[in-house]
Design brief:
It is a single chain. The chain is an alpha+beta fold. The protein has one domain (about 5-110): Aspartate Aminotransferase, domain 1 (Alpha-Beta Complex), CATH 3.90.1150.200. It contains four helices and six strands. It has a six-stranded antiparallel sheet with strand order 1-2-3-4-6-5. Helix 2 (about 15-30) crosses helix 4. The protein is globular, with a radius of gyration of 13 Å.
Length: about 110
């Protein structure tokens, strides 16, 4: 798989829908970023650095913004399962649009700093 389109085409229909919504959210939040595949996942790069990754799993969408935003947004992420570099966004809940955009904005500032 070389593109996010190729990646999304391999997913189950519900996962395709969620992945496409996530892709569009990230594109909106990071209009200068370029799409790529990294670690076999859709990713967005800016200035040569990966901003965020995402990947559908069985029961959730994995969102991988790197560790710093998970610490910075710990309060807003309390309702989600997180690990050092990952956030699990369950399919049975709407995507937290404003939180995702804020995390992407945080990553852009981090990379540009």
């Amino acid at each position: 798989m070389n593109t996010i389109d190729d990646y999304i085409a391999t997913l189950a229909p519900m996962q395709q829908e969620v992945a496409q919504i996530m892709r569009e959210l990230i594109q909106t939040a990071a209009p200068q970023a370029t799409e790529t595949i990294a670690y076999s996942m859709p990713a967005f790069q800016q200035n040569g650095n990966v901003l965020v990754y995402f990947a559908p799993a069985k029961a959730h969408l994995g969102f991988y913004p790197t560790p710093a935003p998970i610490v910075a947004f710990a309060e807003q992420l309390r309702g989600y399962k997180t690990s050092k570099g990952a956030i699990q966004l369950p399919y049975d809940q709407p995507l937290p649009v404003q939180l995702i955009k804020a995390i992407v904005a945080y990553r852009i500032k981090e990379i540009n700093a």
